[in-house]
Structures are given as structure tokens and as C-alpha cells.
Design a protein that fits this description.
The chain is built from 12 helices and 16 strands. It has 2 domains: about 280 residues, FAD/NAD(P)-binding domain, CATH 3.50.50.60; about 140 residues, Elongation Factor Tu (Ef-tu), domain 3. The protein is of the alpha/beta class.
Length: about 425
């Protein structure tokens, strides 16, 4: 083995999972985290693995791409997924976590690992002679991203995304809500805030007209479709939200009727004291968020604990620079993981940290790299990063569209997705064998 120490820059989801995967294989790790000395515009906690957008890690159902990916990760001993389950809050078929508890548990676990040194320091230079995993996330500091740009000889890439506001549960008017999971999945884990036709269209009108935070940094603002601000979505048509985050399909109130539109609230913590407005990522100024979102009948007098914010996310052009095992073509000692690598989503970021760490270990041990099967979500996501169109590259979530087709056509949509999942899970089992 060439060396027994790896530098990991960034203590987010990808960096923490990579740290565990290397430490359990006997590799010493220096984990560099700039907090609490330096905070990004979206971070506030001193702990590792801080979640700043939604608290949902998406569905666990095997008929979903996210559920398929989770099942594959479980086979590979994904530690952060285990901790997420320990910190889960009711969310139907989705895996949602108590953010503070999750971050604290991850921090305590990483600190307990043998051979891991946490260094609170902002890294601004990269030594290509040292084995390094760059997992600084989409909010990589300006100086380091300039250094990465110099290293790659490439222009910086970015997009904008947003987070949703959080309200105090005690200030919600429960008389104007009903509890139910969509299609009766879960144990009525969501608080549903119904709106009639007049209330909905008035809300949409005010939402579209509301004042937004001006983004002066770039004239051509690129917005990631998977985290679209609700006001931008609403501007695409007055019924767009009724077919998106406010869709009433699969929901009926206590009288057995389906509302015209529904705003769903999801628990933020295990006690149910705070709630996230599902799908309400926004770039409205704070005063407008209070005014417009209070038009939702159940939230008329709600107190907002945290307002939504929009921020710039940075990522590299993966197809130009990365291999399928997440190391640079020009600098094999340097690996990328997390959203800066070009994946999008919490579980996808964790996945990239796991894959990068295993790849790093194989490199240091002079073992052949794993050829992740394309039938797996892990393999297809990794392949997408290196085969996508360089000119139009955008970060990618796990989805069935990137998987190779099934040998046998299945007409039923759910059965077809389950077949994809079963095939992918089996392919990972074969790798382990």
C-alpha cells in the first residue's frame, strides 16, 4: 500500500461517508472541515453532515429510484443511511430525518472512529501529490473553487437552488387541516392544508407578483429543475402547482372529499414541534414569504422559524474531468464526491462518497477498480457523470431513465420499476460475492 493517510476536504454527507468507508478499511483520514471558523451562506450548525435544504431523503419504496438506491447502499454498509433511519421522523413512505439529531449523531460517530483526525480549517490549496477526496459540496468556498478551476483548467459551473421555510407547529391552525398520507401510505404522517378554488388562485396570483431577492452575481441565472423555487414554478401557469407540490391527487379530507389544492407540511424534528412546507423552496424576500404563505388558511397566523433562501451551488463538469470511479483523469490522486462532483440529492451525495472511498482504497491497495454494474443505480449514476453531454451538463438525481432497459417489457408501471430495482440489487449482490 502506497500510503495509509487520505485527506478528505469537506465534512458534509459525502465526506463523512467516505471517512467511514476508509476508516473501516484501516486507512487513516484527515478530515478538513472549515466550520465553525467559516460558514457558507446556507450553513449554521457547527456539526458535520448538516442538512440545509429539505429534511427528506426521499422514498424508501423499491418502486422508486431513491428506494432502489437505498437498498443498494444498505448492501454496501452505508453508515449515514443507518444513522438517518435512527433519526427518522414520520413521513409516510419517505425517509425524513430530525436534522439536528442526525447531524449530531454523525458528528459523534465520526469523532469516535479510530485513525480519523478532524481538522477545522479552510482549505484553499490542493496538493495533487497527496491522495485527496474533495467533498466540499455545492457551496464550496470561493478561494477553493478558484483553485479547483486552476487545477482543471476549466470555467466554473454552477446553478441556483433554494430551501423551503419552516413553521412553528403550535401556530398552525389545525382546525383547517387534516392528517393523511398520499394514497393512504404511511400513518397519516403529513399535515395537509387544503385550499378551495378561490383561495388557490388568489395565492398563485400573489405568489407570482411577490418581490424576490435579486441575484446580482450573474445575469443568466440557472435554476436546477429538481429544486425549483415555487414562485418560478407558479409563473409557468396558474395550474402548474396543482400538478406539482400542491397536487390533491391521492388525498381526501375527513369528509371523504378531495380538495382543490393541498399544501403539505412535514415534520422537521421527532417531537413534531416544527414543520417544513413541502415543495416550497423559494427566493422571495422574507417579508413576502410571511405575507404570501400566510394566505394558506391553516398558516394564517403561523410563525416562521426559518425562511427559505436561494443560494448558488457549484459543481465541476464531470464528463470532462472525472472517471467512473470519481477520480480525475489528469490527477489520479484527486477524487471528487458529493454535489460538487455532479450528483444531485442527499442520498446521491452519500453514494458518491461511498464509491469514491472504495475507489481510493483500491487505488492505495493496488487492487483493480470495481466496474459497477450498469443495472444498478450506483453504476448508472456513475456512468451518467462521465458520458453526459459536456456542453449541457447538469447535476443528476437517481432516476429510472438512466438505467439500461429490461430484457422483458413490463406494461404495469409499478411492476416495471420493481423489476428494475430487483435487477439492480441482484447485480450489487453479485459484486459482493
Amino acid at each position: 500500500m502506497k500510503t495509509q493517510t487520505v485527506n478528505i476536504i469537506g465534512g458534509g454527507l459525502a465526506g463523512c461517508e467516505a471517512t467511514y468507508q476508509l476508516a473501516k478499511r484501516g486507512i487513516k483520514v484527515k478530515l478538513f472541515e472549515q466550520k465553525p471558523l467559516v460558514f457558507s451562506p446556507a450553513h449554521t450548525s457547527k456539526n458535520l453532515a448538516e442538512i440545509v435544504c429539505s429534511n427528506s431523503l426521499k422514498s424508501t419504496d423499491l418502486s422508486s429510484a431513491s428506494g432502489m438506491l437505498k437498498a443498494e447502499l444498505e448492501l454496501l454498509d452505508c453508515k449515514l443511511l443507518q444513522i438517518a433511519k435512527e433519526c427518522s421522523v414520520p413521513a409516510g413512505s419517505a425517509l425524513a430525518v430530525d436534522r439536528e439529531l442526525f447531524s449530531q449523531k454523525v458528528t459523534n460517530f465520526i469523532k469516535s472512529l479510530f485513525g480519523v483526525e478532524i481538522i477545522n480549517q479552510e482549505v484553499t490549496k490542493i496538493d495533487t501529490s497527496l491522495p485527496t477526496i474533495i467533498a466540499t459540496g455545492p457551496l464550496t468556498s470561493g478561494k477553493l473553487f478558484e483553485e479547483i478551476g486552476e487545477l482543471l483548467g476549466d470555467e466554473r459551473l454552477y446553478f441556483y437552488d433554494a430551501s423551503a421555510p419552516i413553521v412553528d407547529g403550535d401556530t398552525i391552525n389545525m382546525e383547517k387541516t387534516f392528517s393523511a398520507g398520499r394514497y393512504n401510505k404511511g400513518d397519516s404522517d403529513y399535515i395537509n392544508c387544503p385550499m378551495n378554488k378561490e383561495e388557490y388562485y388568489n395565492f398563485v396570483h400573489e405568489l407570482v407578483a411577490a418581490k424576490r431577492v435579486e441575484l446580482h452575481e450573474f445575469e443568466n441565472v440557472q435554476v436546477f429543475e429538481g429544486c425549483m423555487p415555487i414562485e418560478i414554478m407558479a409563473s409557468r401557469g396558474e395550474d402548474t402547482l396543482r400538478f406539482g407540490p400542491l397536487k390533491p391527487v391521492g388525498l381526501v379530507d375527513e369528509n371523504g372529499k378531495r380538495p382543490f389544492a393541498v399544501v403539505q407540511l412535514r415534520r422537521e424534528n421527532t417531537e413534531g414541534k416544527t414543520y417544513n412546507l413541502v415543495g416550497f423552496q423559494t427566493n422571495l424576500v422574507y417579508g413576502e414569504q410571511k405575507r404570501v404563505f400566510s394566505l394558506i388558511p391553516a398558516l394564517k397566523d403561523a410563525e416562521f422559524i426559518k425562511y427559505g433562501v436561494m443560494h448558488r451551488n457549484s459543481y465541476i463538469c464531470a464528463p470532462a474531468h472525472l472517471t467512473q470511479n470519481f477520480y480525475l483523469k489528469k490527477h489520479p490522486n484527486i477524487y471528487f464526491a458529493g454535489q460538487i462532483s455532479g450528483v444531485e440529492g442527499y442520498v446521491e451525495s452519500i453514494t458518491s462518497g461511498l464509491v469514491a472511498a472504495i475507489s481510493m482504497f483500491n487505488m492505495l491497495s493496488e487492487k483493480p477498480q470495481i466496474d459497477w454494474p450498469q443495472e444498478s443505480m450506483i453504476g448508472s449514476l456513475s456512468k451518467y457523470l462521465v458520458t453526459a453531454d459536456e456542453k449541457n451538463f447538469q447535476p443528476m438525481n437517481a432516476n429510472f431513465g438512466i438505467l439500461p432497459p429490461l430484457e422483458t417489457q413490463i406494461r404495469d408501471k409499478k411492476e416495471r420499476k420493481l423489476a428494475y430495482s430487483k435487477r439492480g440489487i441482484e447485480s450489487i449482490k453479485q459484486i459482493l460475492n
